[in-house]
Design a protein that fits this description.
heterodimer; A: alpha+beta; Dipeptide-binding Protein, domain 3; 17 helices; 20 strands; disordered N terminus; disordered C terminus; B: mainly alpha; MetI-like fold; about 70% helix
């Protein structure tokens, strides 16, 4: 019997040891996976997350996991009409575009050199087919919901399409044209269940990379260059993204060439500051951590009282959280949600600077005056009684923040029961309004579209003024007018506090410049606002002379000039628009102005 | 019996370790330099102010480890005492009464023994609300099984002993016989079982907490270990030396303490294992 017990004990000990050793063994594992570098081939290996969290599903248009990293892995294979670099919108499958004055008719002039990975020619038919397909299978492409704006698509000739919208859409150029992967008609026309279509054909696109291997269990993606790429010469032959258990260790060992770090990982980043073998770029994460309050009129007492929410806001010291948890790897957040580096940022929102006296005064005025052991009591006759106590849900990831908030709120007499849970459960609580407070975070806060209710996490918040203002900004084409509306939205959030924002972490990309040095952060995030650095344009030679003074000079004048020259010639496009001389430069400016981007060389 | 055996030495050593740990957990507030929830500058290296530095949110690591003793030992003792009481009771019933009840209990034991324990505990812990009580309940559910089986087989032997038979013939009630004659004879086995269970729970709890399935608010050694491992530069810098190593060593020390005591006691208390191997006879 003793022997048996000892054996069992040993097995447990072994299990713990093996878990602890995972960090080291995975390093070895990763080495096996690496493809031996042959002379002259440039292979870039990027950290895709921790082991077990680096799988973003099969990178086909309808199967990728609908979060930023999933989209990015798909975007390596599929190009969109437009794309973005560090300075804003750039052409992709569309060489150029123009928009009618009412903002409802968009004409795209397509690239004539683009080919699908299987050698077929890309044409306007594919573009029309994709729009129609997305409408037919609305909801299957879970990444966006704005396809409703598109009325119909008309083919003018093989390389010109006109997209008509039902209503003007201020963010069309990014949120649809720069977002929707164009599908090859010759493959997808026979696909009737797109979310189940995962074969080799499902990853044939026009993008700079082709998929070689995908391994779901290891979260391993292996791409090779599409040397026929229409949009410029490639400088990378193979690209790999995979899970490692400790990104910093893998970088130092040379198992990977690039890794991304967030927030409190600043400690790891600091270890690379003095290391000559690595370079670091810093970006805004366009990500916010926030407390979501239950504002539901029936179920949300007392957090459905805006005055009460303000007391909590005053009672939370966000600077302390940034200092203690992030170690300075972020900034206290804008209470209006949108990121301070975003063009839409409203700096005049009420900030609720930490103020215990104010918090206490508000709570006293609401009748929470009696205290037992320092904890306030519900006033008699209230919906709840006893200690002023809340359950604060969060995932294991933000427990530390939860602990800090717990300690801070105790100082104003509010007791917090910190309860870790998983996302699925928390989401169901949010949906049913069965919660008090939740700590949760999301990205995309460079784009006002993120503030749409109820997609936005504040699903219990109801305000007619907010909803109508949101709807109005969606169709406002004039940048200044739209900015004013978006400012108002932020002020409303800061005023009503359906959520109380805590911090915006920074994001860092640490890379080995000998392998690739074109890494950059995309203006307002890739596509609709993905903050990470995996923009497929890093594979292009013309982004290669970058990285001076830590700033990327990506101004790609040559491409724009080439475009203008092409358009100045009497081309098919000109035929299609006989009455007007197309001046690509001006058109781009108009579009960029609509988007609120700094215009590319407008003079 | 004049000499001191290796087992005696190890046993005393183990007992010493356990006494120290229990003392630490009782007097944690007096021993710990800080409240483990107080925050200071995060990620400080060891200094005279913070002997083991501070962790990712600025808690003093030494204080956290000292208070962690409380959590870890509390779980270990609560689980093993409860599991042993349940296991012994069921073992006594199964062994003494036999029949359908005994058969049923033993089949349940068989079922529990065939289930891979840690895997199932992980699954259950992942779905239940995270709290120290979840862990305790889950461990108890699986902790009584071995004891029940051992006690039962011992009772089966004892039941047919002459003095038990005599007591029965003299009209002693079942309860009296169980209490007066059988229980005292299984106690030595149960004590050893208790110690084995406690050391097992220490490791298993640390494992669960390390995987992030423990109660993150009650900071056991496993929880400290878990947060240390989440730190992005834990391997590439020296941080592991004062953040990961101390709770790890505490776990090792506790398990060794329990094992040594169990090792020494087992032979003392279990007549079947009594051998003549020793340094001096």
């Amino acid at each position: 019997m003793k022997k048996q017990k000892t054996v069992i004990t040993l097995v447990f000990a072994a299990l713990i040891c093996s878990a602890a050793c995972m960090a080291f063994s995975v390093t070895a594992l990763a080495e096996e996976d690496n493809v031996a570098a042959t002379d002259g081939d440039r292979i870039v290996r990027s950290v895709g997350g921790e082991v077990g969290t680096s799988d973003w599903r099969y990178p086909a248009p309808f199967t990728f996991y609908p979060r930023g990293p999933g989209y990015v892995r798909m975007s390596m294979l599929f190009d969109t009409l437009t794309w973005k670099d560090a300075n804003g919108v750039v052409p992709a499958l569309a060489n150029g575009w123009r928009v009618s004055d009412d903002g409802k008719t968009w004409t795209f002039y397509l690239n004539k050199d683009a080919r699908w990975h299987d050698g077929e020619q890309f044409t306007a038919d594919d573009v029309k087919f994709t729009f129609d397909y997305m409408k037919d299978y609305e909801g299957e492409f879970t990444w966006f919901e704005a396809i409703d704006y598109v009325d119909n698509v008309e083919i003018v000739d093989d390389y010109t399409v006109i997209v008509s919208l039902n209503e003007p859409m201020a963010s069309f150029l990014v949120d649809i044209a720069g977002n929707m992967p164009i599908l090859p008609e010759h493959i997808w026309s026979s696909v009737s269940d797109p979310t189940k279509f995962t074969g080799d054909d499902a990853v044939i696109g026009t993008g700079p990379m082709k998929l070689v291997e995908y391994n779901s269990a290891e979260g391993f993606y292996h791409y090779e260059a599409n040397y026929d790429y229409y949009n410029g010469k490639l400088i990378v032959d193979e690209f790999i993204t995979m899970g490692v258990s400790n990104a910093a260790a893998s970088l130092k060992n040379g198992d990977v060439d690039e890794a991304t770090f967030w927030g409190s990982a600043v400690d790891a980043v600091n270890e690379f500051v003095d290391d000559d073998d690595f370079e670091i770029i810093t970006g805004p994460s366009f990500w916010v951590l926030q407390i979501i309050f239950n504002c539901d009129a029936d179920k949300g007492y007392p957090t459905n009282n805006v005055t009460f929410r303000r007391a909590i806001a005053y009672g939370i010291d966000r600077e302390e959280i940034v200092e203690q948890k992030l170690h300075g790897g972020g900034v206290a957040a804008n209470t209006g949600i949108l990121h301070p580096d975003a063009i839409w940022y409203n700096p005049d929102c009420e900030g609720y600077a930490y103020n215990v006296a104010e918090a206490n005064a508000i709570l006293d005025s609401l009748g929470f005056t009696e205290k037992v052991d320092g904890i306030r009591q519900y006033p008699s006759g209230a919906e709840r009684s006893g200690d002023l106590k809340f359950v604060l849900y969060t995932t294991g990831k933000y427990l530390r923040e939860g602990e800090l908030i717990q300690a801070q709120l105790e100082k104003i007499g509010i007791k917090i029961e910190l309860t870790p849970s998983d996302w699925t459960t928390i989401d169901s609580y949010l949906r049913d309004a069965e919660f008090d407070m939740v700590i949760s975070g999301h990205g995309g806060i460079a784009n006002p579209q993120i503030m749409r209710i109820p997609d936005w996490p504040a699903s219990t918040y109801q305000s007619e003024e907010y909803t109508s203002t949101f709807a109005e900004q969606e169709v406002t084409l004039d940048f200044d007018d739209r900015k004013e509306l978006v400012n108002q939205l932020q002020e409303m959030v800061a005023e009503d506090l359906p959520v109380y924002t805590l911090y915006h972490p920074y994001i860092w990309c640490v890379y080995n410049p000998d392998v690739l040095d074109t890494w950059f952060y995309t203006r307002d995030g890739i596509c609709i606002g993905i903050p990470i650095e995996l923009n497929k344009l890093i594979f292009l030679a013309r982004y290669g002379d970058a990285n001076e003074n830590g700033k990327i000079n990506m101004q790609d004048v040559t491409v724009i000039e080439r475009m203008i020259m092409e358009l100045d010639e009497p081309t098919d496009m000109a035929d299609a628009n006989k009455d007007e001389t197309i001046n690509m430069l001006d058109v781009t400016c108009v579009e960029l102005t609509i988007l609120g981007r700094a215009p590319i060389r407008c003079e | 019996m004049t000499g001191v055996t290796v087992k005696d030495v190890l046993g005393s050593l183990g007992l010493g370790i356990l006494v120290i740990l229990v003392a630490v957990s009782i007097f944690a507030p007096q021993i710990a330099p800080y409240d483990p929830h107080d925050t200071y500058k995060p990620m400080e290296h060891p200094s005279s102010e913070h002997l083991l530095g501070t962790n990712d949110v600025g808690n003093d690591i030494l204080s956290e480890v000292i208070y962690g003793t409380r959590v870890s030992l509390f779980i270990a003792f609560t689980v093993s005492i409860t599991a042993i009481v349940i296991g012994t009771a069921l073992g006594l019933i199964a062994g003494y009464s036999g029949g359908v009840l005994g058969f049923l209990i033993m089949r349940i034991v068989d079922i529990f023994l065939t289930i891979p324990r840690l895997v199932l505990i992980i699954v259950i812990a992942a779905f239940m609300p995270r709290s120290i009580w979840t862990i305790i309940v889950v461990f108890i559910i699986f902790g009584w099984v071995m004891t029940a089986r051992i006690v039962r087989s011992e009772v089966l032997t004892l039941r047919s002993q002459y003095y038990v038979e005599s007591a029965r013939m003299l009209g002693g009630s079942d309860l009296y016989i169980l209490w007066r004659h059988i229980l005292p004879n299984v106690i030595p086995l149960v004590v050893v079982q208790f110690i084995m269970e406690a050391s097992h729970v220490i490791i298993a709890e640390a494992g669960l907490s390390f995987l992030g399935l423990g109660d993150p608010v009650a900071r056991s050694w496993g929880t400290t270990f878990h947060y240390a491992f989440e730190c992005p530069n834990i391997i590439t810098s020296d941080v592991w030396m004062w953040w990961m190593l101390p709770p790890g060593l505490c776990i090792v020390a506790t398990v060794l303490g329990f094992t040594f005591v169990g090792y020494a006691l087992e032979e003392r208390l279990n007549p079947k294992l009594k051998t003549v191997v020793g340094m001096g006879v």
